[in-house]
Design a protein that fits this description.
A hairpin with a 4-residue loop joins strand 1 and strand 2. The protein is built from three helices and five strands. It starts with a helix and ends in a 15-residue tail after the last strand. The longest helix is centred in the middle third of the chain and has 13 residues. By secondary structure, the protein is an alpha+beta fold.
Length: 121
């Protein structure tokens, strides 16, 4: 049982996309390996730094809204010739908004799309 609990606690450490978690005060409290590789110079973690320092003003406005109202924000970007999906979502602890989770994953240029509303696709 303890092994399962530890595995669940560390599930994001080595997934193949960036996971960054901040608390309600926007202090970065977790970065997985891919997040550190993606966002940190020389592999140095940004844990303890303010999430707002990493985002322009228009993005800060969205983050403040998510931390106040909850919900999520999803968009795609192209950076250094690579397409990525960004998903930002508030997270809760005991029913109260406790912070923000941001995932960033590379989208393959030949990514398939299936329309599950159309059984023939």
């Amino acid at each position: 049982m303890n092994n399962t609990i530890e595995m669940l606690a560390r599930w994001a450490d080595d997934v193949n996309y960036a996971v960054t978690i901040a608390d309600k005060e926007c202090k970065i409290i977790y970065m997985n390996r891919r997040s550190i590789e993606t966002f940190c110079k020389d592999g140095e973690s940004l844990i303890g730094r303010n999430l707002m320092d990493c985002h322009p003003e228009h993005a800060q406005k969205i983050i403040r809204r998510l931390l106040h109202e909850g919900g999520s924000n999803t968009y795609t970007i192209t950076k250094n010739g690579v397409n990525k999906l960004i998903f930002q979502s508030s997270w809760k602890y005991n029913g109260e908004i406790a912070g923000l989770v941001e995932t960033s994953m590379i989208l393959p240029s030949d990514m398939k799309h299936f329309n599950r509303d159309n059984p023939k696709s």
